[in-house]
């Protein structure tokens, strides 16, 4: 998606340790017209899939998933990284290691929000090593739902997460794939 790539080059900041900061437009402050175009693009890509739910993980994926969901006319469900007192009933649980936060989270989703009748599209802002996606895929499989695929805004193609998921037969659609990144620059896959 050229609009996204242009915005990454213009406003993204590369930090040491293969960190790309896009907090001025994607995951801290959100550029709604840009994210609206991202939602339209996910709908175009998955127009052939019978999506009934969009699944993401808190927190950065929620806004993107919500805007995309309006084009699919389906609900968004998100996995939580902490159990709170207002959660009730049975839960799906998995463990996810965050590349950015260098922390392992117990991730939970109420079973009542995902069933074997659902056809799920997972949406997230970043794909690096694939830990978050693997955890969400695990939840989908445990629910008995059908995984239609994943929609990723930015994939770090030089890390193995996307390739490993594709090798497992999982549909991974990334809007911008970064092939290489140094402390001062980045290049996109064509």
From TrEMBL:
<dbReference type="GO" id="GO:0006166">
    <property type="term" value="P:purine ribonucleoside salvage"/>
</dbReference>
<keyword id="KW-0963">Cytoplasm</keyword>
<dbReference type="InterPro" id="IPR050118">
    <property type="entry name" value="Pur/Pyrimidine_PRTase"/>
</dbReference>
<feature type="binding site">
    <location>
        <position position="20"/>
    </location>
    <ligand>
        <name>xanthine</name>
    </ligand>
</feature>
<protein>
    <recommendedName>
        <fullName>Xanthine phosphoribosyltransferase</fullName>
        <ecNumber>2.4.2.22</ecNumber>
    </recommendedName>
</protein>
<dbReference type="GO" id="GO:0046110">
    <property type="term" value="P:xanthine metabolic process"/>
</dbReference>
<feature type="binding site">
    <location>
        <begin position="128"/>
        <end position="132"/>
    </location>
    <ligand>
        <name>5-phospho-alpha-D-ribose 1-diphosphate</name>
    </ligand>
</feature>
<feature type="binding site">
    <location>
        <position position="27"/>
    </location>
    <ligand>
        <name>xanthine</name>
    </ligand>
</feature>
<keyword id="KW-0328">Glycosyltransferase</keyword>
<comment type="similarity">
    <text>Belongs to the purine/pyrimidine phosphoribosyltransferase family. Xpt subfamily.</text>
</comment>
<dbReference type="Pfam" id="PF00156">
    <property type="entry name" value="Pribosyltran"/>
</dbReference>
<dbReference type="GO" id="GO:0005737">
    <property type="term" value="C:cytoplasm"/>
</dbReference>
<dbReference type="InterPro" id="IPR010079">
    <property type="entry name" value="Xanthine_PRibTrfase"/>
</dbReference>
<dbReference type="InterPro" id="IPR000836">
    <property type="entry name" value="PRTase_dom"/>
</dbReference>
<dbReference type="InterPro" id="IPR029057">
    <property type="entry name" value="PRTase-like"/>
</dbReference>
<dbReference type="GO" id="GO:0000310">
    <property type="term" value="F:xanthine phosphoribosyltransferase activity"/>
</dbReference>
<feature type="domain" description="Phosphoribosyltransferase">
    <location>
        <begin position="43"/>
        <end position="157"/>
    </location>
</feature>
<comment type="pathway">
    <text>Purine metabolism; XMP biosynthesis via salvage pathway; XMP from xanthine: step 1/1.</text>
</comment>
<feature type="binding site">
    <location>
        <position position="156"/>
    </location>
    <ligand>
        <name>xanthine</name>
    </ligand>
</feature>
<keyword id="KW-0660">Purine salvage</keyword>
<comment type="subunit">
    <text>Homodimer.</text>
</comment>
<dbReference type="GO" id="GO:0032265">
    <property type="term" value="P:XMP salvage"/>
</dbReference>
<comment type="function">
    <text>Converts the preformed base xanthine, a product of nucleic acid breakdown, to xanthosine 5'-monophosphate (XMP), so it can be reused for RNA or DNA synthesis.</text>
</comment>
<keyword id="KW-0808">Transferase</keyword>
